[in-house]
Automatic annotation (TrEMBL):
A Pfam family reported for this protein in Swiss-Prot or TrEMBL: DctM
Spans traversing the lipid bilayer: 21-39, 45-64, 76-93, 105-125, 132-149, 181-200, 265-291, 303-324, 345-364, 370-387, 408-431, 437-462, 495-515, 524-547, 559-581, 593-621
Function: Part of the tripartite ATP-independent periplasmic (TRAP) transport system.
Major site of localization recorded for this protein: membrane
Name the record gives this protein: TRAP transporter fused permease subunit
């Protein structure tokens, strides 16, 4: 059942002439995106149409129709689909000026328009099925069916009649559907930041971050797991993809943890939890954050700055749980002789910090994410040229360009799917109807509405790329938050958090499935442990909605109080989750510590007294439980 919904087409690496042509096409596509996004004066509609056509061609060349398709050969049907993508893409690009000037639903569509729109719609749906699986495809098809036949429903969900031509007019010939915000972001910000991350990794930046993490934490108790936490977080902020991060850094950290005595499930879960948080860590974060900036109108620099403290808080309980687990099981650190000295690490790769500083500087200065990414890319290329060991030649740059396009194929499919859903919701007014249903369930209570929003976002995100999960939730749920008076930035960050966390939430935890192949462990077991390790991430979004100071909104004193309370609260929750602090903790002390942690996390200064009392009770209770077996032994019982 899971395979049917979440399996994708096989990833091809064609051999021979086809492989060379596909790689050249991918590299050329990347060069075009850099030029079009950064230097061309072409309008966004033309850019988006061209980008989709390029990605469709690559999809049919590089991804087979099923998991059992040949991995090195492109079949005839896929050549036909690729040719169709070129033909229909050419039609839309050449007609872009006319499309941008037409009046929606007033200027009629001719036969060629209807045929071309139908073909590109079908191609996009097939590309989506191959790249992100049947689960998301069925969701999109359900929305499309609702657009066309929802007028037959009664009650709140019913809407006016929408003809097929009306549907195509909105979905394909406006910027509210297929060629809307998600695909436009994929063709600009997201592509350029993936290019930046690919170039940084190729030049040796990933190895630098790993070595730095190993030096800082490798020799301590539980060193291998701490290396995974730190290195995956650092790498995740430039990759922006939990699954990609797991595959890249996990291929090193998971076997290392297993060798040092960690159980396979815990080793993989640690990597999954740490990698997932990388998509929330500034300055790069992930594609969904760029879509958030475009969708809300909030500058990306403001989003990244506000997200900094919550992202750092995310790693507090993870790091502490890893430390406590190592203490309880007596797991040692790595051999210090295998870790390069700090001087050597800085000498070999310290300059790789410069591109991240450049991006941060550009965002703070108010440059658009597009130009910030280009400046960061220039920084990578400049830094790599300073040393022979990191210098990238023409062949390396060619590989980086092609690999970036390869990686963006799945993102483009997901964003196209999200655009189709947005177009349907716009046509039918479903968002306002959805708000009504949520209010009926929650009774307009803020906490109940937030819990529903968290559950729905996680549910929508299962088996789905983060950008798609965020967009679906943002369109459906953000109106509810605005009606409740929740701050726009806090509300959308709340949704973003749970969209990201869906990558590790069972039963469809895509990051856990990626880790399972490396750890040779059941993915559901990994996912359950990853949720336990990343438990704080499910609390932090609620905390910053109730405590805006965590998003740097407030005075310095308010921010300090909120941060101290959050660190202490998350630490107590982590101790309770792990059930260990110097000695194993019973159920009673763990419940008391959980309650104390929640008071510190969500309450103000007055709540700290209650938290202190509860923590003290937990300590006394645990000491009493320790002495009880000794007393029984002394009396001979």
């Amino acid at each position: 059942m899971f395979d049917f919904f979440f399996s994708t087409g096989t990833r091809r690496r064609p051999e021979g002439l086809t492989g060379h042509l596909a790689k050249a096409f991918a590299a050329g596509s990347a060069i075009w995106v850099v030029y079009a996004a950064g230097f061309s004066r072409a309008d966004s509609l033309t850019l988006t149409m061209t980008f989709l056509a390029l990605m469709l061609v690559l999809t049919f060349l590089l991804i087979g129709p099923s998991p059992t398709s040949a991995k090195t050969r492109v079949n005839l049907i896929d050549w036909v689909l690729a040719a169709l993508s070129v033909a229909v893409g050419t039609y839309f690009v050449t007609q872009a000026d006319l499309i941008s000037m037409r009046i929606t639903l007033l200027d009629p569509l001719d036969t060629a328009d209807v045929i071309s729109a139908s073909v590109i719609l079908l191609l996009a749906i097939e590309a989506m099925r191959r790249t992100v699986g049947m689960g998301l495809t069925l969701i999109v098809l359900l929305f499309l069916a609702y657009n066309l036949w929802g007028d037959r429903l009664g009650g709140v969900l019913g809407h006016g009649e929408i003809s097929y031509v009306h549907f195509l007019d909105i979905t394909v010939f406006t910027t509210d559907g297929l060629f809307g915000v998600p695909l436009r972001v994929a063709a600009t910000y997201a592509f350029l930041f993936v290019l930046f991350g690919t170039a940084l990794s190729k030049a040796g930046g990933a190895q630098f971050f790993y070595n730095l993490a190993a030096y800082l934490t490798g020799g301590t108790v539980g060193g291998p797991a701490k290396i995974a936490v730190v290195s995956s977080g650092l790498y995740g902020t430039i990759s922006g993809s939990p699954t990609s991060d797991v595959v890249t850094t996990g291929s090193v950290t998971i076997p290392m943890m297993k060798t040092m005595g960690y159980r396979p499930a815990f080793a993989a879960a640690t990597e999954v939890a740490a990698s997932t948080g990388g998509s929330l860590l500034p300055p790069v974060m992930g594609a969904a954050a760029f879509i958030m900036a475009e969708y809300t109108g909030i500058p990306y620099a403001e989003i990244a700055l506000a997200a900094l403290i919550p992202a750092l808080l995310y790693y507090v309980p993870i790091y502490l749980q890893v430390h406590l687990r190592a203490l309880r099981e007596g797991l040692r650190g790595v051999d210090l002789s295998t870790i390069p000295s700090l001087g050597r690490i800085i000498k070999d790769g310290g300059l790789f910090v410069v591109p991240l500083v450049v991006i941060s500087w550009a965002l703070i200065k108010g440059y658009t994410p597009t130009y910030s990414a280009l400046y960061g890319l220039a920084g990578v290329l400049g830094v790599s040229m300073l040393r022979r060991a990191t210098r990238m030649g023409i062949a390396d740059i060619y590989d980086v360009l092609a690999e970036t396009s390869f990686r963006m194929v799945a993102v483009a499919g997901a964003c196209a799917a999200a655009g189709l859903v947005i177009g349907g919701i716009t046509m039918t007014g479903l968002a306002s109807k959805f708000s009504t249903l949520v209010f009926m369930i929650s009774g307009a209570d803020v906490l109940a509405s937030l819990i529903i929003a968290a559950l729905l976002t996680t549910l929508l995100g299962m088996g789905m790329p983060t950008p798609s999960a965020y967009i679906l939730a943002a369109v459906l749920i953000s109106p509810v938050m605005q009606d409740l008076g929740i701050d726009l930035l806090a509300g959308h960050l709340f949704i973003l958090y749970f969209a990201v966390m869906s990558a590790l939430t069972p039963p469809v935890a895509v990051a856990a499935y990626a880790a399972s192949a490396i750890a040779d462990e059941n993915p559901l077991v990994i996912a359950v442990q990853a949720v336990k390790i990343a438990l704080g991430a499910f609390l932090i979004p609620f905390a910053f909605v109730y405590q805006p100071a965590l998003l740097l909104k407030g005075s310095v004193v308010e921010i300090l109080v909120a941060v101290i309370g959050a660190v202490a609260g998350l630490s107590l929750v982590a101790v309770a989750a792990e059930g260990y602090y110097r000695t194993p903790l019973g159920r009673g002390p763990r419940l008391a510590l959980t309650a104390a942690g929640l008071l510190l996390l969500f309450g103000g200064l007055l709540s700290w007294l209650g938290a202190l009392v509860l923590a003290g009770c937990a300590w006394v209770w645990s000491k009493a439980q320790e002495r009880a077996p000794e007393a029984k032994g002394a009396t001979g019982e």
